[in-house]
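Sat 14:20. Reprocessing the chain from the morning session after the first attempt stalled halfway. Input below, unchanged.
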Amino acid sequence: MENFKLFGNSKSAEKFIDDTKSSNRFLFSFVTSYTETCEIPGITLAGTNSDLIKFTPAADAEYLHYGYCKTIEKIPMTPDGKPTPALLTKVALESSSIPHLTINAGSKVVPQLPVIETQLPTGKNISVNDALTDSQVSRAVDFGRIVGRSLSSLTDCLIIGESIPGGTTTALAVLRALGFDANVSSSMPNNPTALKNQIVNNALERITSEHPYHIISKVGDPMIPFVSGMLSSASSVSDVMLAGGTQMLAVLAFASKIGFDEKSTVIGTTSYVTDDKNANFTNMVKQIADVPAISVDPGLKNSKYSGLRSFSEGFVKEGVGAGGSIISSMLKTGNNQLKFLEMVEKEYSRLFTAEN
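Finished this time. Tokens:
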């Protein structure tokens, strides 16, 4: 389709597109998590202020289900109208009748809705502490495998999205610890690369072993081992789309150490990630595994709303499985970029009217 760009193993990408268009059976799983690394000033745009950051994953989950939030009054949105990428995900899922569910994998605030509860801990600030213990990493992988195996049996394509404020920084640390020369995207147009590099360098000094579980325990977060476990088991049953940007690269890198089926795996993201000149997303995919990446342009640069245009101007870029959800929605319905933008603007108008 003209709205997609293919990277990595393009033949596998074309096969995935053909297979999923014919089956039309998608299931979206949304993993909420947390790393205290996000509390470092200047590291993330998530939430309107530092006091609200911890509510962002729960609020995203609630908005997807209810159309409004319960843990906070308003959906995650900056004061000048830049909305959470959950808006894109919600429109994509609802317009194509793709079912979804929420999994709590270490979120600091649990969403007020039915969730699959893992009882995993939140991740510590990797600048000064180990993220997790080795046993917690092992438990996250095992629990992810259980959930992934169960969910994949219900669908032909399991889409996995996430919300973890500060997750690009822990992802960067994991990728570099695993030996990749990574540069990652940011939720801000002016990527705080110097701050991220300082945090990552501090964290890497604590690594004393090349064992992948040890690396995650020192510099990772709960989402990475859990989703890697999901991918490990689910990819042997159904197709799996890792819906996201930088964080899903870290998942892919760790999963390559514990095992997964490359032939059943694809990354789905937005053009705002693959076009980011401060990152090397597409090259990283090729370095990590022989899997395809599919990029979609949501067309937000043509929006009449500045809050939506901001995505194309370097803000947020991706999150809450937005890119993968849009791709799946377009594959299922045949909707194009113009139709999607029309639906997104309608939802944004509803929200902006409700929020003010």
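Residues 4-355 form a domain with the Rossmann fold fold (CATH 3.40.50.10210).
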